[in-house]
Amino acid sequence: MAASAYSVYNEAKAYMVNGTVDLDTNVIKMGLFKSTSNASTFTLSTGASVTNAVSGGGYTGAKTLTCSVKVGASAKQYKFHYASVVFTASGANITSIMYAVIYVSGGKALCWSKLSTGAFSVTSGNTLTIGANSTGGAFTIT
């Protein structure tokens, strides 16, 4: 399974520039969404506007990310990083997973990644680990 690069929602760019979203201080979360989700719609503006979150199988909802913003290849670049997140299927399978969405807790949608070319499941007792690209981060601001 090769995940797509993260795509930043249109309005998220403005939120980061005008200070509505502070990647260093806001509580940032990642949720898993089904293949029937609207997660890849670039005009979404809030985490609550993303439809069809996965459920069941021990999936208890979005995970809080440990985030950092780092200087990129030059002083003109900043990269948004997060520590790997682990979702564990417990008691049943987590099914129909397609997207990971990063958003501000109770607020703005930031970016999404299509985790696979088709929906997949994590079987009970197994884990799904999602990490930002170690050199590129989740996304770069230039």
Fill in the keyword field for this structure.
142 residues; mainly beta; globular
In short:
This protein is mainly beta. It is built from 1 helix and 11 strands, in the order E-H-E-E-E-E-E-E-E-E-E-E. 35% of the residues are buried.
Low-confidence stretches: none
Number of domains: 1
Q: Topology as H/E string?
A: EHEEEEEEEEEE
How many distinct helices? 1
Strand content: 35-45%
Largest sheet: 6 strands, antiparallel
Map the helices and strands:
Blueprint: E1 7-8, H1 10-18, E2 28-34, E3 63-64, E4 67-71, E5 78-82, E6 85-88, E7 94-104, E8 109-114, E9 120-122, E10 127-130, E11 139-141
Explain how this protein is built.
It is a single chain. The chain is mostly beta strands and 142 residues long. The protein has one domain (7-141). The protein has one helix and eleven strands. It has one helix at 10-18; strands at 7-8, 28-34, 63-64, 67-71, 78-82, 85-88, 94-104, 109-114, 120-122, 127-130, 139-141. Strands 1, 2, 3, 7, 8 and 9 form a six-stranded antiparallel beta sheet that branches. It has a three-stranded antiparallel beta sheet with strand order 4-5-11, with no helix packed on it. The protein has a two-stranded antiparallel sheet with strand order 6-10. It is globular and about 45 Å long.
